[in-house]
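Many introductory courses stop at the sequence. We go one step further.
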Amino acid sequence: MKVAATINMREEVLDEILRSEQSALVQYYLAKNPDKARELNGLSGRALARAVGRLEGAVRLPMKRATGATPPVQPLTGASGPSFDPSRAEMAAYAADYKRRQQARQR
C-alpha cells in the first residue's frame, strides 16, 4: 500500500476507475500492481476506458482458506459385540453370563 500511495494518478484515470462497476476490486489490484497503475496513468480517452474495462473482467478477490482449524475428530466406527439377552438364553448361558458379570465387578 505504501508503494501505491506514492503513485500520483491523473484525475481522468481516477474518474474512470470510480465509474467502474468493480471499482473497489480495480483499486485493490492497482495497489498490489503499481506498474499497471503507472501504465493506466499514461493512457487517455478510449484506450483508458478499454484498459479499465479489461481490468474489471480480470480482477478477482483473493481466495481465502476456509479455515486454519484442525480437521474434526473422526467418529468411532465399528459395532459392539452382541449383547446378552437373558430372556432368550438357556439357564446354563444365563448362569455363565451372571458369573462373568460378578467377576468383572470384583476387579
